[in-house]
Design a protein that fits this description.
Helix content of chain A: 25-40%
Oligomer: homodimer
Shape of chain A: globular
Largest sheet of chain A: 8 strands, antiparallel
Number of domains of chain A: 2
C-alpha cells in the first residue's frame, strides 16, 4: 500500500511541476531557469520542477531555498542599514537573468506564517533589499522574465488554514483551484485565460472613468486612466514567450489613477505579509494617499511598509474577481495572497502593474503628472465579496453595476 | 520531558554553532559570512550558525542550501557542456567574497550518500563547475577567506554509518571528535593545534627527503620538497584572521614533490565522493602519475576525476595522523572525508595545499619544474592505520620510523 500512496504523490507532484514549467513559465529549449523555494519545506516540488524544466529543455536550472529563520536572525540582530541592503551579487544575478531572458518559477505556501510575529515589526517592515527589488521589478515591468508562482501544499500551511496538518485536504483544494483535476490542465487554463481576457476587453470597451466599491466598512472610489488597459494575467515577454505569472489566477486588473483614490476600505480576508498575519485591516485614502491604517493584528508591518517610499502609500493596482473563481468556490481562506487575491476583488498599494496594462511605463519621477504609481512595494489585499457592490462610473457620472452578490453583471 | 530533550538539542546546536563561528571561522565584527548547508537536512545547524554569526558581529550572513536531487537531474538531463559550466553569477559571488575577506562555514554530513549511484558515473565525474572551483581555490590559496567545515549529525548519515538512524550515537561521536565534551571546546582546540604544530615543527627540523608507507597492498614512496613545510590546519588569512579550516582536524600535512611518487597504495577506509561510495580503492603511481585505478565500487568516478586535467592524476597532499586522533579513537568509519581523513594518514591527488605549507605558490604552468601540483581537483583518501608503517627517508637514504602501530615515533 505504501508504494501506491507514494506513486500517487509522485504523479501529483509531476502534474503540478509540469503545469508550472509548461502553462506557467512556459520554459523554452535552451532557456536559463530559476526555481525558488520560499521554504526548505518546498523541496519535493522544487526538485520535481527542476527535473521537469530540464526535461522541457532548460539549459541550466539555478535553484534557491529561502530560509525564514536566517532572515529572522538578520532582522533581530543585523545593523539597521543592513535590513534594506542588497548584496551586490544578488543584484548582478537578477540583471544577468534579465539579459538572458530567463524563466523563473517561485513556490508559495508558507509553512510558518507566524515566524516573525514576536519580532520588532518596524524592523520587519524595513527588511527589504531595495536595490534588488528595484532590479527585479525592472525585469518584470520590462517583460524580460517568463515567470510564474505556484503553490506547494505542506503541513504548516495546512495547519494555518484548517487548524490541523490536513495536507491531503489542502492538496485537493489546490488541485481544484489549479485545474489539475482536468484531463488537460494546460488546455483548461488556456480556456480560462481566454474568458478572463474577454472580460478585460468588455471593460476596456466601456472606458469607465472610475470604479466604486461599497459594503460594510467600505466606500471607496478609484479613478481610472484612459491609457491603462484592463488585462488578465497571461503575459508575453519581449522575446514572445507567453506565460501565466500566477497559478491560480482569476483576476482582471489595471493600474488606477492613484491621485483619484478617495474613501475607506475594509479588507474582507486576512493577509499573510512578511511572516506576520494581518487581520481586519482598514485603510483610509485622502487625495490618493493612505492617511490611516488600522488592523486587529499586524498594523505596524503595513504602516512601516506604507512609509517605505513616496509611492508606497498610493495605489498601484485594482483587480476584479467574481464568483466563478475556482479559488472563491473552495470557500477556503488560504492565508496566502496567491490564492486569496484570486478569490475576490483586491487592490494593492505600491508599484503599478505594467504588463498588458501599460503600453509604455512612465519614469518614476513622472508619477504625479501621469497618475501611474511607482514604488519598491506592491502589496495586494482583499476587499471584495458577495456583500460588496462594485460599479463602473462612466464619464457622465452614471453608475453601471459590475458585480452584485459576486456575479459579473456586464 | 519533551521540553528537556528540546532544550538539550538546542544547547547542543548552539555549542556546535559557536565553535564553528568562533574557533572555526573566527568571525570578526563587521565581516561578511557565508553559511553553506550541503543538504536541506542541515537546516537546524545552518540556522544556529547564522544566528551565532550575527551575534558575533557579522555584518551580513549569506546562506545557501545545496540540493543533491537538483544536481542529479542536471547530471542526468543537461547538455554535456553544462556539467562543467560555471554560472557567471556564482563566479562573481566567489570573487566578491574574496575581495571582502569573508568568512565561510560549510556543513558536512551527507544524508543520502548513494544518491548518484545509479547515474552515469562518467557524467558524475564531469559535473564540476571548473571556473567556479578555480576562483574558489584562488581564494583559499591566497588566504583571502576565513573558512571552516563542521559536521551536522542527521538520520541519513547515521544510517550510513550504523545501519540505523541512530542520530544520538552519532551526535555523541561528533561531540567527542569536536571536543565539545570539554568545558571550553575553543581552548581545547587551541591546545590541540599547538600540539600538532609542534609535530609539524619536528618534521620540518628533520628535513626528510621522502616518506615511505608500507602495509598490506601498500608500498609507496613520496618525495618531499625542501620549500614545502609541514603544517597543521590552523591558518591565518592575509588580514591576520586565525581560523581552523576543518573541525575536527588531527593531521600534519605537506605538499609533496609529485614527480617523485612511486609505488602502489591500498586505501584503508572507504570514501564518499560526489554522491558515490568508493570502496577498496587501489592506485598505482609511476613517475609521479596515477597509472591504474581499481576499486570494488566507484572506480569510474575516480578514473573520470583523475582525467579532469593535467594535475588531477598527480599528488597534491600527504598527511600524517596518529592514534591520538579523537576521530581514530571513536573506531567509527564515518563515510565522510572530514572525519575519516582525520582518523589516519592520507594522501590527495590533485591540487597542492598552500596555506602554512608554501611561502609562495608557483604558477600552475611551473608545476613540472617545481614539483608542486596544480589542478581543479583535490580528493583525499585514507591510506594509514595500525598495520601501515610510515618512515621518513633522510637525504642519505636512512629510514627513520615515524609511525608504528599508529604511534608517533619522533
Amino acid at each position: 500500500m505504501a508504494t501506491v500512496v507514494d506513486e500517487h504523490q509522485t504523479l501529483r507532484l509531476q502534474r503540478l511541476a509540469q503545469l508550472a514549467v509548461g502553462a506557467g513559465a512556459n520554459v523554452q529549449e535552451g532557456q536559463l531557469v530559476e526555481v525558488i523555494g520560499s521554504s526548505i519545506e518546498h523541496a519535493p516540488l522544487l526538485r520535481a520542477i527542476s527535473r521537469a524544466a530540464y526535461e522541457a529543455g532548460a539549459r541550466y536550472v539555478e535553484y534557491r531555498y529561502v530560509d525564514g529563520h536566517v532572515r529572522k536572525a538578520m532582522i533581530e540582530l543585523a545593523d539597521e542599514e543592513v535590513l534594506s541592503w542588497s548584496p551586490p551579487w544578488v543584484v548582478d544575478r537578477i540583471k544577468t537573468f534579465g539579459e538572458e531572458g530567463a524563466a523563473q518559477i517561485s513556490i508559495a505556501g508558507e509553512p510558518e506564517p507566524d515566524l516573525l510575529a514576536d519580532v520588532d515589526q518596524t524592523r520587519v517592515g524595513k527588511a527589504r533589499p531595495i536595490e534588488a527589488v528595484k532590479a527585479y521589478l525592472e525585469l518584470v515591468s520590462g517583460r524580460m522574465l517568463s515567470w510564474t508562482i505556484v503553490p506547494f501544499p505542506n503541513e504548516g500551511w495546512a495547519s494555518t488554514i484548517f487548524g490541523e496538518p490536513d495536507v491531503e485536504r489542502l492538496w485537493e483544494a489546490v488541485e481544484f483551484a489549479l485545474r489539475l483535476d482536468e484531463d488537460d490542465p494546460a488546455a483548461a487554463w488556456k480556456a480560462r485565460m481566454d474568458e478572463l481576457e474577454g472580460r478585460a476587453a468588455q471593460l476596456n470597451e466601456r472606458g469607465f472613468d472610475a470604479i466604486r466599491l461599497r459594503g460594510e466598512g467600505t466606500d471607496l472610489t478609484i479613478g481610472l486612466l484612459p491609457r491603462a488597459h484592463w488585462a488578465a494575467a497571461r503575459f508575453t515577454t519581449t522575446s514572445g514567450n507567453d506565460h501565466i505569472p500566477n497559478l491560480p489566477t482569476e483576476e482582471v486588473f489595471t493600474t488606477p489613477d492613484f491621485r483619484r483614490t478617495e474613501g475607506r476600505v475594509r479588507s474582507t480576508k486576512p493577509l499573510s505579509l512578511q511572516g506576520t498575519l494581518v487581520r481586519d485591516l482598514e485603510i483610509r485614502f485622502e487625495g490618493g494617499r493612505i492617511v490611516n491604517v488600522d488592523a486587529s493584528s499586524g498594523a505596524d508591518v503595513i504602516r512601516t511598509q506604507v512609509a517605505t517610499d513616496e509611492g508606497a502609500a498610493r495605489l498601484g493596482e485594482l483587480a476584479l474577481v467574481d464568483g466563478s473563481s475556482r479559488v472563491g468556490q473552495t470557500g477556503i481562506v488560504f492565508w496566502d495572497t496567491l490564492f486569496d487575491e484570486n478569490a475576490t476583488c483586491h487592490i494593492a498599494y505600491g508599484n503599478h502593474v505594467a504588463p498588458n496594462v501599460l503600453d509604455e511605463v512612465p519614469a518614476p519621477e513622472d508619477a504625479e503628472s501621469t497618475g501611474i504609481n511607482s514604488s519598491v512595494v506592491h502589496t495586494d489585499f482583499m476587499i471584495g465579496g458577495p456583500e460588496v457592490d462594485v460599479d463602473g462610473i462612466t464619464r457622465d457620472g452614471e453608475a453601471v453595476p459590475l458585480l452584485r452578490r459576486d456575479e459579473w453583471q456586464l
